[in-house]
Every structure is written in structure tokens, then in C-alpha cells.
Amino acid sequence: MEVDKGKGEAEETRKVAEADRDTVTLKSSDGKLFEVSKEAAARLSTVLAGMIAGGSIDDNGTDLKQIGSEALENVVDYCNKHANSIPSAALISSSISFNTAPFKEPEEWERKFVDRLSHDALFDLVEAANFLGMERLLDVTCHKISEMMKGKSPDQIREVFNIKNDYTKEELEEIRQELAWAFYDD
Amino acid sequence: MKRPCDPDPMAEASGEARVTPAGAECRINALGNDVLLRAISFLEARQLVQTCVLSRRWRNLWRSVPRINATHHEFDVMVDSEEERSVRIKKFTNALLMLRNPVALDAFRLSYFMTDYQEPADPHADREEDANLWIHHALQSNARNLQTGCAALESLLLSGCGIYDIEISSETLKVLAIDDSSYFTTDKQLSISIPSLSYLGLPASARMPLLKNMGSLVTASVSVSVDSEGATIDGIYQFLRSLSVVTNLDFNFKGTMEIIFRVWHALFMTSSYTLDLVQLKMEKNSQWCPKFNNLTALTLGDCCLSADYVLEIFLQNCPNLVKLTVKPKKCNYTSQTIISKLKGKEGSLTSQNIEILEIECSEGDRNVLEKLLMESGITSWNVDTEVGSEHVHVEH
Q: Max Cα separation, chain A?
């Protein structure tokens, strides 16, 4: 009990120290450290916001074992760019209903941000955004995926994403008949 | 649920050609359902449904997307005629909504038009009814979603719609806006019951809708038409009463020209015309206007001000008003009369709590207005020329 109490006090002191800093340090699965503005992290990620509020942020680098260094670098980069690009008025209104507001088309810089990513980097970032509860980044990356599908035939989509067609010909025929209203094969 | 990238013995047995190069990772199929649904919900509706053929993993995903984006563009190709296209759009949308899983819709965008020209016997003359069925589905989807606890449809904007529904209800809708280009059925009263609603925008209609459960309402933008047969003092009172919790009200009052005509008709024609004019009754008593105790911002549109008692009665019933905006542009209502109404019987603006007075006025009115403001004891105001309106900050 005594030991626990002592530990609790140390934790308290560390929390205070943490509260004084305006950045948080994040540690990727491969041990690399990244600094990100505390304000941006809390605003853009529900998970980081929860960790900051709950005092579970580690000064020496909060372990994010699920996220590789390349993806985490992109996450941090996105947070910084986001902080710099949004006018303050929009920021205020967006923070009110960030999760409930209807989807807004990606902005120019957000498009560029995801366009430069390799196929694997894009999917790593989708997974990182999902893990960290970053609604906007998840929307922007998911939107990018949809654009990679848009206007393409099923064969072309399978090729882009390496999707294996595991249907039999008979099954495919059955689906096309069942959903003829979407295919116009009637 | 089938595992995404597992080799399927059935496919191998049938000798199906492999599209995926051996060894290449399939990143998209490794995503969780929620994330995958989020991605494909950005697709337009037809392509969304067609993702079912990609692989078994995808077979039923389209049924659970939280967003539907159905536009006529997807049907522009491969049809020979306008008629064929509209048949396909209807068939498609009906099937999509019928076969999708009962999951909540965050957003439902339905964009289509059909030619105005319709033969009387045209089977598609019921096109608005179809759209209404679809909207009904959208609203129902939120009601269900309340039970499942997911996010819900929160905004519904209707533009240019014929609304034949007699009841609009939802447990989750926050914004309902019906614009001026929409029109209502005339034989039945529309009933709107949305306890979660915070914004309501309604155009003038022949019969004022019955509003129920408006307890969450913050902002309303409504028009009242006194020309129509259905308008009564009591009806206007009931309608405004259901809005009386709002803090922001944008009120338009339609029908003045018609009233002038009827008065003229009644006075100068020796017919047995019954002078049963709602507007005249409204002028004589203030029973049509309930107390708006929460109201802090009031905007009165063009036509309200040609019936200047509207302003006076509203001021009596809005004790906590802080900002008043009047838009007298199209009427022969001058800044002078606004100020005189504001001064009221006590002869001072200070009888109200009004801090900001916004008057949209023409350039020529400004000098007159400034003189009047000075005479009223107002010492400070800002002139915003860019928006062509006068912002007056009243100092007590």
C-alpha cells in the first residue's frame, strides 16, 4: 500500500511537469521519438486527448507499439500542417462539432499530403489514424482510397489493391443477377 | 465473415485465374470493416454496390455504409433516353434502400432531376412521391440507429422538393431546412415532430405546419403567409408558440400585396366581399404573438416591415432581445419609422436591452438614419459599407 502511494505521488509530480510542456513525445514501434504540439494532438486525436487528460503521457516518449516510425512521422506531420493551415475561426467552429459535422472535401494541402504517400504508407497511415481516433485524418485517407477506386472496373480495382477474386464464376453470375439493378445486365 | 486474403479452396477448385500476383500483400482487405466502410461510402452509390463482386470479403459491405451518395450522373451513360434513365434511377434507389442493412445513415445525398415535361399518363408522374419515400427511409434509418447507438443523420436539406408527406419525425435530426423552392401538399396539414432539432428553416406554406416536440430548438427561420385561406390568428399563435424557446429567430411575413388588394376591393367595390382579413385582425390585437423569453437575436425580413405593427408587437414580446436586424430594402419602410417604433411610448431605446441594431439600408438613407440615431440618444454606431448595412451598437 505504502509503495503504491509513493508511486502515486511521483506520478502526480510527473503529471504536473508534463502539463507545463506544450508538446508531447510519441514513440513508434521501432523506438523512434517524435514531438508534436499537445494542443494539436489533443484536438485531432481522441485517443491522445484521452491520454493527455488522463495523465498517461510519458515524458520519455509515449509508447505507440502499433504504429511504425514512417506512419507516426506522417501522423505528426499531419498534426503540424493542420495546426498551421486552419484559420482560427474555422478552428473554433470545427472543434465544436468535429465528429458530427458532415464530411468536408479534403483541402488542397490534405490532398497533396496523401497523394505523395506510397501504397503501403497510405495504408499504414489509415491504420494509425484509426488506432489514434483521428477522425479527420481517417476521412482524408479513406477518401484517398475511394479515389483510387472511383470510375474503375472491378478488375482494375482488384489490380490496384491486390484483391484476390475468390468467387467462382457461378457465384459471380448469381450476384450479378441478384443485383441486376446495379449492373444493368438484364 | 470470410477472412480477407485467405486462399479459397473453392476458387482453386474451379480453376479461377488469380488476379493477385503471388506474394503481394492485400492491404485493403486487412482493414477493419468500419474503416473499409468509411472508405467505400465516398463512392457514388452505383459503384458502391458494384464493389460486391471484388471478392467474398466485399459481398455485403455495401449494405452497411453510413453514407449514401446517389446522383443521376452515374446513370447518364448507357441509356438511350431520358425516360430510360429515370426508370433506372428509381429502380436502383428503391432496391438500394430496400436491401441495405438497417444501419444508421450519417449522410444521405440524393441528387437527381427529371424533365419537367410529363405526359399526364406518364407512369413517372409520381416522381416526388418516390423521393419522399426515400427521404422517409433516411429518417427511419436514424430512428433505428437510436436503438443501435450509432451516429445519426443530423442534417436534412430539402430543395425544390414537392413534399407530400404529412408527417416528418426523427429522434436524431438536428438541422431541418426546407427552402423556398419546395412546396407542400395543400389539403393536409404537415406535422413535424423532432425533439432533437436545433435548427428549423421553413418557407411560407398554404397551411402552417403543426410543430411538435421543438424543445431543443435554438434557431428558427420561418415565414408566415397570411394570404392563404388556412391562416388564422390562432393558427399563427400556435405556430409561433411552438417556436418560442428559440434564441434566434428570422421571421418573414408574406402576403401584404394581396391584403392591400383585398382592402381596396372591399372598400371600393360594392360587392358582398367578406372582409375577413387575418392581417387586419393581427393589427388590432397582439394575441397572435407569444412571449419569446429566450430570444436574443431577431431578424425581420422585407415584408414584415410593410406591416409595421409586426415590429412593435415583437418588441413587446421579446424582453431579452439583444440584437435586432431589420431588412426593409424592398418596402417603403424608412429608417425613420424603425427608429420611431424602437423608441416606443417611453421615447427611448433604453426601454429595451437591445445592444446591436442592424439596419440594411440604402446609401441615401444613411444620413437620415444617423440624424435619427443621434436624436434618439444613441452615441455610437458602426457603419459597415461592405455589406450595405448599418450596424448600430446602442450604448445605454
A: 77
pLDDT per residue as tens digits for the range A16-33: 454 567 889 999 999 999
**3-state DSSP call for residue B328?**
coil
Residue whose entry in the numeric block shows the C-alpha cell 440507429 = B145
d(CA A129, CA A136): 9
Cα–Cα distance for residue pair A40/B290, rounded to 1 Å: 46
Overall pTM > 0.90: no
pLDDT for res B40: 95
Distance in Å, alpha carbon of B123 to nearest chain A alpha carbon: 19
Q: Does B38 touch chain A (CB under 8 A)?
A: yes
Q: Kindly state whether B76 is in contact with chain A, defined as any CB-CB distance less than 8 angstroms.
A: no
User: How close A10 gets to chain B, by Cα (Å)?
Assistant: 39
Domain positions in chain B are 31-115+130-183+197-207
Residue A33: CB atoms within 10 Å: 13
Q: What is the DSSP string of B147-187?
A: HHT-----EEEE-S-EE--SEEE-SS--EEEE-TT-EE-SS
CATH number of A2-150: 3.30.710.10
Report chain A residues whose CB lies below 8 A from the CB of B154.
100, 102
Q: Are B30 and A153 in contact (CB under 8 A)?
A: no
Q: Is B251 helix (H, G, I), strand (E, B) or coil?
A: strand
Spatial neighbors of A128 by CB under 8 A, at least 6 apart, are: A66, A67, A71, A72, A74, A75, A134
ipTM (interface predicted TM): 0.82
Measured CA to CA, the distance from residue A45 to residue A75 in angstroms comes to: 10
Q: How confident is the model at residue B94 (pLDDT cuts 50, 70, 90)?
A: confident
Give dist(CA B227, CA A28) in Å, integer: 69
CA dist., res. B88 & res. B75, Å (int): 7
- Distance from C-alpha of B283 to C-alpha of B392, rounded to nearest angstrom: 28
